[in-house]
Amino acid sequence: MTLASRRYLRPETLRRIHHLQLRVRDVVDGTMTGLHRSPYRGQSVEFHQHREYVRGDDPRRVDWKVWGRQDRLYVKEYEEETNLRLTLLVDGSASMDYAAGQPGRASKFDHAATLAASLAWLGLTRGDAVGCAVFDDRIRASVPARTRRSQLDGVCGVLEAPRAAGQGDFLRVLRDVAETLPPRGLVILLSDLLGDRPGILRGLRLLRGRGHDVALLHVMDDDELDFPFSGATRFEGLEAGGVLACNPRALRDEYLAGLEAFLAEVRGQAVGAGCGYTLVRTGESPEAALVRFLSRHAG
User: What is the value of pTM for the model shown?
Assistant: First the structure.
């Protein structure tokens, strides 16, 4: 797949993840190259297409005639094998615009969008159907799942589109997604999860009730996780508004205790709803975060 010059596609990230697989943990409407079988049986077994070999493929499916002509390994895919349907939901609410005050540091949204674009690239190179949506209190931009290679341009266009950056409404968005998506796919939510936590939990359960495998990439800025502030500081709310001027040293212990409770709650809610959960720092390289996520999702 040739890559257009895109803001959120980083060649170094793609090089690090190209050998990895998007895996699913439940029977869904699709297969992942022998990692997951289709729930359908008795369909046509006619040859459909070639796909480049990746580590873990059954060697018996390699087309050795093609290898003899091109000196590259390809496997055969058949009509009875359906592609995984991946839906990427990227939080575009105002809180995602926070970025630590360091030169060149990406915002939480930029980091999440880079992860999403990389996952879309990975899925499309494996022949999967990939869709994407950016939301705050509603879905603001989206592209339905498609398998065509040009779909990457559509996904990047959604991620690069101007955002309203309003206040998030997880329950409304996740309910809409659960009601409109065909059942049994892989849904990855990329968000700081700052919002109505009971609504988030209800939304996740709606998706799970539709048979989707759901994974959360919880994107947090290093400042939010470490609270490195010292001296007189002015904090401004990005969504609910409000201003707090204070000496952050006096708040640090209480803040970090509250943070630990928040992380434990959202992690527990995700696991309790049967979802995967990975905490991602904006200071962590996208490729390191994706290797960690892809290596253990479905574990």
Answer: 0.79
